[in-house]
């Protein structure tokens, strides 16, 4: 249907609306689907694809498959360069608001021309056509109602003038709505960009935070291994000393046991001369063995390992206090550390003096 031919003559304001719905490529009313460019201008997707293909003749191969790389073309309205991804114009967002306005406009255009015999008639005066508008009651009516009927005292105006006025008002409202929708679309695009940047920034700071905590974990693991090694070394030294003492005492016990057995055998000797020949030397050996029992011993609390205890409460509190701070907080923290290091170095110098 040719909607241009159905426009109301004499410069009807609906012409202004239709001009906003004309594609700058085909110079016809937009054909759905309608796509919106990054510069906020609209095109029929078919027209957009035509100029895209013209600007990128090698974008589609002979088999009809889409190239993995994108392309670019310029907006016919503002010459803004539009960069496409591998989806081409099918990656552009549809402007559903413009499509809805086109549907409403077409419905209005189709209902505007009044066919003969279909002119609305007055309910009170069935033979009279509705040809005037009651400004007081804000309803269309007929001339008979003004002369003889319910609208005698009302102010009226020609139907066509009110019709043109309200059409103009509706047209202005639609234009205003379209402009508002364009602004909203721009805001949505800005917010989407803000959302994307926020996600990227969040990912970056998360990565940095993870790296810093991984470094802390590495320091703690290294210190843990160092301290455990010291405990293990002390344990081995103490166990070596104790095991050496056990060996010495076992050797002494073995010698004493053999002397006891020899002494018992000597006591069983019936002959006095034979007994006396070995008794003196045996008694001497037992006395010396008794004196030799004074081997090394462990001191009281030798097995104690309490001196390896750590007081990590202040470090735990410091870890709990870790939080995101400003640059001023970091500078104050660095200054406090430098002051503490200065105090320690001063105390060390005084101690040497």
From TrEMBL:
Domain RING-type positions: 23-79
Compartmental location: Cytoplasm, Myofibril, Sarcomere, Z line
Gene Ontology process terms (BP): negative regulation of glycolytic process
Coiled coil feature spans: 206-237
Pfam families hit by this protein: zf-B_box (PF00643), zf-RING_UBOX (PF13445)
GO molecular function: titin binding; ubiquitin protein ligase activity; zinc ion binding
Domain B box-type: from-to ranges: 117-159
GO CC aspect terms: Z disc
Residues spanning the membrane: none
Protein name: Tripartite motif-containing 63
Superkingdom of origin organism: Eukaryota
Residue ranges, compositional bias (Acidic residues): 326-344
Annotated organism of origin: Nannospalax galili
Main subcellular location of this protein, as a coarse class: cytoplasm
Keywords: Coiled coil, Cytoplasm, Metal-binding, Zinc, Zinc-finger
Region (Disordered), start-end ranges: 326-353
Domain COS: 267-325
